[in-house]
Structure formats: structure tokens, C-alpha cells
Amino acid sequence: MLHTLTITQAHAKLKKKDISSEELVRACIDRTEAVDKSINAIVHRSFDRALLEAKKIDEQGVTSHPLCGIPYFAKDVYCEEGVPTTACSNILRNKNYCPPFDSTTTKRLKAAGAISLGKTNTDEFTMGASTETSCYGVTRNPWDTTRVAGGSSGGSAAAVAADEAFFALATDTGGSIRQPAGYCGMTGIRPTYGRTSRYGVMSMASSLDTIGPICKNIEDLAIVLQAIAGKDTMDGTTSDTAVPDYHATLKNGVKGMKIGLPKEYFIDGMNSEVEGAVREAAKALVSLGATMHEISLPHTKYATPCYYVLCPCEVSSNMARYDGVRYGHTVENPADLLDYYVRVRSEGFGPEVKRRIMIGTYALSAGYFDAYYRQAQKIRTLIKQDFMEAYKKVDVIISPVSPTPAFKVGAHENDPVAMYLEDVFLDGQVMAGIPALSVNCGFSNDQLPIGLQIMGPQWGEETVLRAAYAYEQATEWHKQKPSL
User: Fold this and answer.
1) What is the Cα–Cα distance from 446 to 62, expressed in whole angstroms?
2) pLDDT category, 63, cuts 50, 70, 90?
3) 131 to 99, 369, 392: CA distances (angstroms)
4) d(Cα 109, Cα 228) in Å, to the nearest integer?
5) Using omega within 30 degrees of 0 as the cis cutoff, is the peptide bond preceding 152 cis?
6) Strands 449-455 and 396-400: what pairing?
7) Domain CATH code at residue 135
8) Residue 400 three-state SS
9) Mean pLDDT value of segment 187-193
10) How many domains does the chain fold into?
11) What share of residues in the chain are helix, strand, coil (percent, to 5)?
12) Residue 238 contacts by C-beta under 8 Å, 6 or more apart in sequence?
């Protein structure tokens, strides 16, 4: 049962020579082959390559880094040299696109000795909240395969929940790490914008995209974040801000920590089991020595509308490169250049990508730029100011990850607005550029995981991780496993 270990447990066994990296990789491969047909989390397998890397590590006999010899999956937007990377879109899948370079994050993990097993499923170009827009089909939740695993990083969350790997790389633009982690009972962090490099990760919305890991517990999350965080000369949006030792401060506890409970995050229509679990989590934190304070984030109601103006605008710009000339699907015998462009993009992109391109192009047009895009940017500033004021009074803020547990596959198939509202608690942090994570805080009566969101100020990952670790150690939720 090596695949059930955490990173910390596996590293300890590797150091003692109780197990080999090759055994860990084979355990994950066997587990993936046994269960992935039920959940569809994996879209590309690099198993032969992974076994070769594991054998090299075993031959060297050095496992000083906690991630050395540890297998993981990467979301299908992370470029890895020579590995098919399609963003789960036919526009790249049809050309079997293989990047000629590595993303900064996968390069840093490779330097640490971590071993990539392949790519996980995602909504097409990360546009969605359920992986239902993927050209490879939906990823199903390991806790209940009639339900979604979330999105867009549903494949990464489901793979870790199903013990197919020890961790997975993901991205979060409007909640795409936190929501699937919450739905699948895992923990995932959206770091401060600029804490981790986006170089080599296919863009959806460049001022909103943030990359981070999904793991089995908070200690593992701290280890992976430590390995991938920091300034990158290839990404001008990364910061010189020093990266603290996240693991070293995990056990400092929450005694004296001030925790904010925003009234705007407990809304009409929220699932009662979700609200109950989050309020119980708040009580648990108080019992550990924290103090709870009701706060207000008055512009919260504008976060999702603001996001769904700004995000499509950036989508419209970023998707322009996929024209069949520079990148992407090609067509035969076009009537002219315009016909070529129209057919390439019509055949290559799915409905959600087309929808966001259309919305973004409209909002950026000369007649509507001031009415939509400029106003949304002003609202974004107000939302950020709300958080800045709140963090003058509290150290972290807690809320539900989602208003309900994971929904049924197809539940929002004909209602894109309802799908967008799944991110109602996840867009404000994006506007503010602050760190936030999801940690399991209970289960519904249907045995579906419920996620607790913990948010911190900019560059406050250390505090967020410490609060989450204290809560996790005081509870047993993270130890439960789905039956597959």
C-alpha cells in the first residue's frame, strides 16, 4: 500500500532504504491503472520515463530533498519537454503538441528529484468548474463517481484523492485549486500572485492565474510549495519577496491568532451541512487558542461579476495565439485566410472557450471598454482594499470553499451562469491577489467532503499554512479515504 503514504512518510522510508523510488513509482502506476478508468483523472501517462528517472535516483542513492524520488502528476497545462501537453483542448490535441521546454515549476521539481508521472485532466484551457469542458471527458469524484471532482484542476484533485500520486500540480484562476481540493477532500493552496512562477504554464488570464499544488495533507503542501516558490527571471510577475521556511513554522500553533469570519460569506441558499461544518471548524480553532472576530468584506457581492468581466477579456487576448499558424489545429483546403482562421478556431475550441472569447472581445471593444473592463478594474481595487482593511484587524479569514458539496455530473450542463456561481466564495481572493487554501473540515450526510477555506494577507502563506495545520492536527477528516 505504498501509494497511500504521504510525502513525509515516503521520504522517511526512502532515507532508511526501506523502499526504493522505483517501488514508489510502480505502486502509483499500478494504482492508476487499477482505478483511473472509474474517475478519468489522467490524460497522459509518462510511466516509462518515470521508471527510468526512479532507477537513476535509486542508483545515486541520495534522497536528501523531501521530494527526491516522489512521484507526482502535473495538470495538462504545465509544459514538460517532450511530453504531450494539450490543455485538454482539441486545438492542441489534434496536433499532439509536445513543448520543447520545461515550465519553471516542473524544472524546479525535477531539480529536487521529484518524478513526473504524466498529465491530469482539466477543463479546456482551465475554463470551467467541473472538468466537463475537457476534450477528454469529465473527471469523476472518487468519493462518488456520479459527481464532479471540481474544476478546472479536477484531474489533479481526483488523482491525489485516489492515491494515484503523492501530489499534483494545479492552477487557480477563479478557485480552480481550492474548489476541486474541497470537493475531493484534499488540501490545495492558491499562493499570493507572484509567489510562484507561471513561466511554461499555458495562460488563461495572465493577471489572475496562479499556480500551486494539491496534496494529501498540510505538511506535504508546505514541502511542495517550498520547492516551487520564489523569484523567476523568466516571469516578470514573480516577486523578490523572501520565501520563508514553511515547514519549520507549521507547528507554532494558533494561540493568540485572530481569525475573521466574514458575514458576506454565509449567504442564503448555502447548504446547511456546509455552514455547520465551517462553524464547527471555527469552534475548533478557538479551542486551540485563536480568537474569532466577525468582519465585513462589503464588496464581496461584486467579486464574481467582476471576475467574469476581467477573465474573459484576458482569455480573448491569450487565446488569439491559437490560430492554426503559430499553434494549434489545422484544416485542409480553406477558401481563404479568413475561412482558415474561422474553421481552425470553430473546430478546435469547445463551447466554453468560445463563450469567453466572445464575452471578452465584446467587453474590450471600443464602445464598451469603459463601461465594462475599466469599471471592473475599479471594483477589483475596492475588493482588494476590503481585504487590506480586514487584515489590519485579523491574521487570517475563514469561509466555506463552496456553498454546496460536489454537484452531480451534468447538473449545470445548460446553465453556464449557475456554473459560474460555484465560484462565489473563491473570486474575491483572486481580485486581491492573496493566498488561500482549502482543507477538509467534514463530510455531508452523503459522505461528500466539505472544504474549509483559510485566507491570509499578501505573502502570508506561512500564517495560512500554520492555521490549517493546527486545525488538521486537531481533527481526523484528512485521514479518511474514498472507496474505489
Assistant:
1) 45
2) confident
3) 23, 31, 38
4) 7
5) yes
6) antiparallel
7) 3.90.1300.10
8) strand
9) 98
10) 1
11) 45, 15, 40
12) 194, 195, 196, 197, 230, 231, 232
Give the per-residue pLDDT at 328. 84
Residue length, the chain? 484
Q: Indicate whether 374 belongs to any domain.
A: no
Which neighbouring-strand residues pair with 201? 78
Q: Which domain holds residue 286?
A: 2-261+271-297+385-479
Alpha helices per DSSP H over 326-475: 337-348, 351-364, 375-390, 416-420, 428-432, 461-473
Tell me the pTM.
0.97
Find out whether 148 and 450 touch, Cβ atoms under 8 Å.
no
In a domain, 223, yes or no: yes
60 CB contacts (<8 Å, ≥6 apart)? none
Torsion-angle region of residue 61: left (phi > 0), alpha (psi -120 to 50) or beta?
A: left
CA atoms within 13 A on the CB side of 427: 22
Residues 6+ apart with CB under 8 A from 268: none
Q: Which of 11-25, 167-181, 317-331 has the lowest mean pLDDT?
A: 317-331
> Does 69 map to a domain?
yes
- Residues identified as active-site: 75, 152, 176
Looking at residue 329, the DSSP 8-state letter turns out to be -
Question: Has residue 415 got a pLDDT over 90?
Answer: no
* Cross-sheet strand order for the sheet of 167-172: 42-45, 115-120, 71-75, 167-172, 210-215, 187-190, 436-443, 449-455, 396-400, 258-262, 291-295
Please, is 201 exposed, middle or buried when counting C-beta atoms within 10 Å of its C-beta (0-12, 13-18, 19+)? buried
Q: What angle do CA 399, 458, 405 make, to 5 degrees?
A: 25
* 352: its cell numbers: 466554453
Q: What is the pLDDT of residue 413?
A: 86
Largest separation between any pair of C-alpha atoms in the chain: 71
Cβ 24 vs Cβ 71: under 8 Å: yes
Q: What is the mean pLDDT of residues 461-476?
A: 98
Q: Is residue 347 part of a domain?
A: no
Assess whether pLDDT exceeds 90 at residue 344. yes
